[in-house]
Amino acid sequence: MRFSHLLIPTLRDDPGEAETVSHRLMLRAGMIRKVAAGIYTFLPVGLRIIRKIEQIVREEMNRAGAQEVLMPIASPAELWRETGRWEYYGKELLRFKDRHERDFCLGPTHEEVITDLFRREVRSYRQLPINFYQIQTKFRDEIRPRFGLMRGREFIMKDAYSFDRTESAARISYQKMYDAYTRIFTRCGLTFRAVEADTGLIGGTSSHEFMVLADTGEETIVYTDEGGYSANVERAELLPEADPGDGQDQEALQAVPTPGMSTVEQVTSFLKIPPQRLVKTLLYRAGQETVAVLVRGDHEVNPIKVARLLGAVEAALAPPETVTALTGAPVGFAGPVGLKGVRIIADHAVRHVRNMVVGANKADTHYLNANLDRDFPPPQFADLRNAKAGDPSPRGDGSLKVAKGIEVGHVFMLGTKYSQAMNAHFLDPQGQEQLAVMGCYGIGVSRTAAAAIEQNHDAKGIIWPVPIAPFHVQLMPLSQSATVLHLAEQLHDSLSAAGVEVLWDDRDERAGVKFNDADLLGVPYHLLIGDKSLAQGLVEWKSRRTGQTVKIPPDQVLAHAQRHLQS
RNA sequence: CGGGGCGUAGCGCAGCCCGGUAGCGCACUGCGUUCGGGACGCAGGGGUCGGAGGUUCAAAUCCUCUCGCCCCGACCA
To answer: Which residues, listed in sequence order, are joined to residue A69 by a DSSP beta bridge?
Structure first.
């Protein structure tokens, strides 16, 4: 492909709107252009990358036995009302009316539409298991779209939905998708990790997220070196630890003034104690109930765990008025001692804190040396906090480490949530109606492209992994001399004929311009043809990643290319 | 939704405080010279200064309203 036949509007300057590496580089390399907040046009080079990823996804989905369909982007409100999500989904669901005033939305995901298809068309257990997938544009009206393709409002997603006879059969479908995802991200040339994820309200038994590891990732994961355990921090289970048994004596409870000191940092540095000795008391609103949650000063409450313990949909910090009403003190001075009229729950780690510092439920006052049993009744203990580096693994295989990741895939056991809401049945061998057991599986295709850049770039630009690179080789004639141009054309033709994807920079630009654009674009191999080396009958093959250059005769280029592209 | 910032040529920006009819670099067009890591010269094209209203003899500049975009945050006591 000739460079001059594609619109590749590279930019010399960083666009002011982009902060993130992938966003900046995709704009500069002329791969995407913004149309509105979180909404982008893919230009030819950007689209080629998307197509590459899609192709890998498609091959692996097909191999795993899923069948491709294409559902509409617009879907009618009735389907969403059946599952309650028309109300539940909130503002992220972009709604509109057609000319007859009928309610529609742009699909943010397609459980409703696919379940509707299933219940209309699939009758018998003989047709199961069945798994449908599509690669399609999704729309989610995010609160704050950001980072270019990383969190767009419109994005390209592969979504798949499996239907099985039983829970155990569904687990097999789930495992097939899990394995397919592992192959997909491996084939894309990405460094990633599958982590246990929260199943949230949807319930079900399993959920895994596939995280591309990158320091710029929005998600935090914990893992052990041996790979025995890895999970999203939100999800990571923490077992109760044994009492370190330092045998400290309980000292007398004592109120101390802590004027204006409402944060852990302020109180601990004022009292000159380590944060582990402070126990903070946070009031959470979960459903109809308000609870006081105790965690150690160096720990963070995990609201998802709080909600799960209480059987609520979600838990959020109570507003300041509630805090004042219940504790009689402004925010920052709540504590378990003498706290009335509210249930208290505590993280396991609190059990072993002796002589703790806690709020005194009085403005500008904390207690020193508060102790369980003696000063306040023992609360219910549970795992209520986020994991942090150094915590013991729940599998007992060492301690947890922390890393940042970008969520590019998510597999999910749904159970019968949707089949029940929408009456999606099949007939079992006994002729009885049974609810289909479902799973759903998503891959952010456009986000995968962005994640690949976050993981593979240097100061000069992108460095694509070969399998998802827009081209394999960028061919650069460095002068306009007839021999150089002639050889460039010959090499372009012979490589292309052999299936090597060549971007031939046929522009009449200076060498420096071509080099810089090539580095920006990130095509993995550069083939340089210049008068200098050609004088010795050689051309240069250069690796974008390592910068390593070898000089080879033109008739060996094809073999050389094939050798590099295979690995 | 709260806070901050920004809309002036395709991109990056100056001009705005202190009103006087728009400028710089890159990109783009033509010609010439150049040609292995973002060349140079000469000559050009391109902007109703996000939009609407107001003040004024005069508005990119002052005032009001509006639209769009970016960043941070959305409450860890």
So the answer is: none
How distant is C1' of B4 from CA of A420, in Å? 48
d(CA A353, CA A267): 17
Q: How far is the CA of A199 from the CAs of A113, A165, A206, A232, A304, in angstroms? A: 22, 21, 7, 11, 10
pLDDT tens digits along A172-228? 999 999 999 999 999 999 999 999 987 655 556 689 999 999 988 888 999 998 878
Q: Is the CB of A560 under 7 A from strand B?
A: no
Give, in Å, how far the C1' of B9 lies from the CA of A17. Answer: 18
The protein residue nearest B77 (Cα–C1') is: A332
A478 touches strand B (CB under 7 A): yes
| β-strands A401-415, A356-359 pairing | unpaired
> Residue written as tokens 């126990």?
A279
Phi, psi angles (nearest 5°) of residue A113: -65, -40
> Does the C-beta of A370 come within 7 A of strand B?
no
**ipTM given for this complex:** 0.91
Extended beta strands in A327-468, E state = 343-347, 356-359, 365-370, 380-382, 401-415, 425-427, 433-435, 437-444, 457-458, 461-462
Q: Determine the Cα–Cα distance for residues A512 and A520; give it in Å rounded to an integer.
A: 12
Residue pair A41/A156 in contact by the 8 Å Cβ criterion = no
CA of A452 to C1' of B50 (A): 35
Which portions of chain A are predicted below pLDDT 70?
A: 199-205, 246-247, 567
Window 263-282 of chain A: CB closer than 7 A to strand B:
263-265, 267, 280-282
Quick check: A194 and A205 in contact, CB under 8 A?
no
Long-range contacts, A553-558 (Cβ 8 Å, 24+)? A554/A487, A554/A490, A554/A491, A557/A491, A557/A494, A557/A495, A557/A527, A558/A494, A558/A495, A558/A498, A558/A500
Q: Tell me the DSSP string of A120-156.
A: HH--BGGG-SEEEEEEEEEE---SS-BTGGGB-SEEE
CA of A301 to C1' of B76 (A): 7
User: What pLDDT is recorded for position A205?
Assistant: 66
Question: C1' nearest to CA of A142: which nucleotide?
Answer: B1
A218/B2 CA-to-C1' distance in Å: 22
Nucleotide nearest to A28 (CA to C1'): B11
Report pLDDT for A202: 55
- Residue A218: what are its φ and ψ, rounded to 5°? -85, -15
Q: Are strands A525-529 and A473-477 parallel, antiparallel or unpaired?
A: parallel
Taking C1' of B12 and every protein CA, the nearest residue is: A13
Considering only residues 188-227 of chain A, list those whose CB is below 7 Å from strand B: none
A520 touches strand B (CB under 7 A): yes
Q: What is the DSSP letter of A259?
A: T
The candidate with the shortest Cα–Cα distance to A278, out of A297, A292, A295, is: A297
- How far apart CA A14 and CA A17 sit, in angstroms, is 9
Nearest-CA neighbor of A339 among A350, A328, A347?
A328
User: Could you check: is the Cβ of residue A479 within 7 Å of any atom of nucleic acid strand B?
Assistant: yes
| Longest pairwise C-alpha distance within chain A | 94
